[in-house]
């Protein structure tokens, strides 16, 4: 799809479109319905994320990036269900969707700055109305509102970058795309963090440990440490004060990544040892048992998953994977090396032909 924006033809995503750069679905009619279902599920999960006990604005930001259309409408339904206990954010989602619908023909809707602007505006308006109706403002409330406002706008910008169809063509664009992918994954894990089994085991933390096992086992110590830090911070923010999952995940990913090339059993043993040793850094004893059981579940799932699937998923999840962002330098080097190789090939053919002929010049 191409639209005329400020005198330039710029490829943009269709309104309410699926995150096509992720490449999860084939281009078919069935994929359209699956994509709308995915939009509903993503809106539902992102809207259930909490930060220190308060609903996070990730669902509102994702809806602003989705825009209007069938996918955006189903995302709105998912956000409304997820924000069932948060009237303010649910009202912000409705305001965001209606704004995108009524301004659908305006060129500003297709720009990069529309999602953060409309999401921030919807959040600040509904939040101010809520504060005015419930007793006024205070310095603490204003600072908290400013923090969530910044988080909402930044999330909307990252989600919009992830949903756009064009591939990144610069190093900075590729870094932004990778950061947006990792951030979306962390937000989804924060959303399912509140899903508890037996009132003790967190599905989000178990999935975080499994993802850390995959990334550390395929990418090594550097990827394991960075992924552990990102996933740990997400779990710390979702759990609230007094939790240090970032220390546990980062240490386990760093130490086990050193042995990622060894046998799977030895790698899992090192990961479990580092995880359990750093687990005592958690000041809350009641979380240690649950975190230990989550480790057992993640290790069991890692053992069951086929090795080829683990390698494929690890290559997809690594935030510093290669892509087209360095394409300028790579294409230049490839062209120069290709030219030299072609010249040597011609020289080799000429010398072979001269050596094989019986004529005397």
Radius of gyration based on Cα positions: 25 Å
Helix content: 55-70%
Put simply, the count of helices is 14
Looking across the biggest beta sheet, what order are the strands in? 1-2
SSE order in H/E notation? EEHEEHHHHHHEEHHHHHHH
Query: First CA to last CA: what distance?
Result: 63 Å
Question: How would a crystallographer describe the biggest sheet?
Answer: 2 strands, antiparallel
Specify the overall morphology.
Answer: globular
The total strand number stands at: 6
**Structural class, from helix and strand content?**
mainly alpha
Oligomeric state: single chain
Rounded mean pLDDT is 75
- The low-confidence parts are 1-27, 319-326
Share of residues in strands: under 5%
Give the arrangement of secondary structure elements.
Blueprint: E1 2-5, E2 8-11, H1 29-47, E3 50-51, E4 54-55, H2 58-66, H3 70-82, H4 87-102, H5 114-134, H6 139-163, H7 171-192, E5 196-197, E6 201-202, H8 203-219, H9 221-239, H10 245-257, H11 264-279, H12 285-304, H13 307-317, H14 327-356
Antiparallel strand pairs: 1-2, 3-4, 5-6
Helix pairs in contact: 1-2, 1-3, 1-7, 2-3, 2-4, 2-5, 2-6, 3-4, 4-5, 5-6, 6-7, 7-8, 7-9, 8-9, 8-10, 8-12, 8-13, 9-10, 10-11, 11-12
């Amino acid at each position: 799809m191409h639209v005329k924006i400020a005198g330039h033809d710029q490829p943009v995503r269709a309104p309410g479109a699926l995150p096509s750069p992720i490449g999860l679905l084939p281009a078919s009619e069935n994929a359209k319905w699956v994509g709308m279902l995915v939009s509903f599920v993503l809106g539902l999960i992102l809207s259930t994320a909490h930060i220190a006990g308060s609903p996070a604005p990730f669902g509102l930001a994702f809806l602003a990036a989705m825009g209007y259309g069938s996918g955006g409408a189903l995302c709105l339904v998912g956000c409304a269900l997820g924000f069932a206990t948060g009237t303010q954010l649910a009202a912000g989602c409705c305001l965001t969707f209606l704004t995108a619908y009524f301004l659908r023909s305006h060129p500003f809707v297709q720009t990069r700055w529309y999602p953060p602007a409309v999401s921030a505006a919807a959040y600040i308006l509904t939040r101010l109305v809520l504060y005015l109706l419930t007793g006024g403002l205070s310095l603490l409330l204003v600072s908290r509102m400013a923090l969530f406002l910044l988080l909402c706008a930044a999330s909307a910008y990252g989600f919009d970058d992830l949903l756009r169809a064009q591939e990144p063509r610069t190093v900075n664009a590729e870094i932004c795309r990778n950061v947006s992918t990792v951030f979306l994954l962390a937000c989804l894990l924060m959303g399912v963090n509140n899903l508890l089994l037996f009132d003790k085991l967190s599905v989000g933390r178990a999935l975080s440990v499994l993802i850390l096992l995959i990334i550390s086992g395929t990418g090594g110590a550097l990827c394991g440490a960075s992924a552990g830090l990102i996933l740990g911070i997400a779990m710390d923010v979702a759990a609230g004060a007094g939790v240090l999952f970032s220390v546990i995940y980062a240490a386990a990913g760093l130490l086990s990544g050193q042995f990622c090339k060894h046998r799977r059993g030895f790698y899992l043993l090192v990961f479990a040892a580092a995880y359990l040793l750093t687990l005592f850094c958690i000041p809350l004893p009641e979380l240690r048992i649950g975190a230990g059981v989550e480790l057992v579940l993640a290790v069991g799932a890692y053992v069951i998953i086929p090795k080829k699937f683990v390698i494929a998923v690890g290559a997809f999840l690594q935030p510093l994977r290669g892509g087209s962002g360095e394409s300028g330098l790579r294409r230049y080097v490839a062209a120069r090396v290709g030219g030299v190789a072609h010249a040597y090939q011609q020289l080799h053919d000429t010398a072979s032909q001269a050596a094989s002929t019986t004529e005397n010049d």
